[in-house]
Amino acid sequence: MKNLxxxxxxxxxxxxLQVNAQNKYPVIVIHGGAxxxxxxxxxxxxxxxxxxxxxxxxxxxxxxxxxxGSALNAIEKSIIILENSPxxxxxxGAVMNYDGRHELDASIMDGSTLEAGAVAGISTVKNPILxxxxxxxxxxxxxxxxxxxxxxxxxxxLELVDNSYFTTEKIKKSWSESKPQQLKGEGSxxxxxxxxxxxxxxxxxxxxxxxxxxxTGGMMNKKHGRIGDSPLIGAGTYADNSTCGIxxxxxxxxxxxxxxxxxxxDQMAFANKSLSEAVQFTLHKKLTG
Length: 289
Ligand code: ASP
Fold this sequence. Notes:
By secondary structure, the chain is of the alpha+beta class.
């Protein structure tokens, strides 16, 4: 790794978290979604459980780096733990679409090679982040969607599950509560019925290589086939050893239009901004709505 001033960054629409890799490698940062969660929306028990899973995901990813493992393997480890937890909008616990089914999106990028992989609209792969990684490593493509992505995942021997595996009682309830709004034609569900919790991770390994990944169920009650920012390289995920690693999330339609993750990297690469300046610029000057 040549540039010791490199920064790793993961950001949420409303919250920013930065890790300055000058501090020393390795580094890992994770997130569990964007949005404002009001006190009343989360019981103390749930809050403690969420913190416990986040800590486990962070520690497990860091352990990979500590043993000399790659940034790619570290973020995979963290994201799988978050996907398997019912508390996040990714994997088990993901939101439901208009039809009451789960359609999942994920992406991953290796900042040392600029290789990337993603899956969109998949409904039977237990850990979408593994499918995204397999697309990157074992196919000539970057993004596979729907049935084709599932056929590919099967050929990669990834664990497949029934779509109902992703359902939790909480999500089912929240989905039915959002139905009246949906039927009235309100595309975006209100705060009470919205599920926060897209997950993501960014890491720098001992070699100084950066990797970033994001996984989500998308938005509650989304129209069948809707694809958000999370599986789009340059929108929800980006990693480049020469600039930064980013996993970001928010209302996907806005993130897609700006290409938020790549915009931040470009602001660093071409406008000579620091990571912090690039983020401020992108969030406050480019991302509106
Ligand atoms: N960014 C995700 C999407 O638009 C959803 C979210 O994080 O709330 O699919």
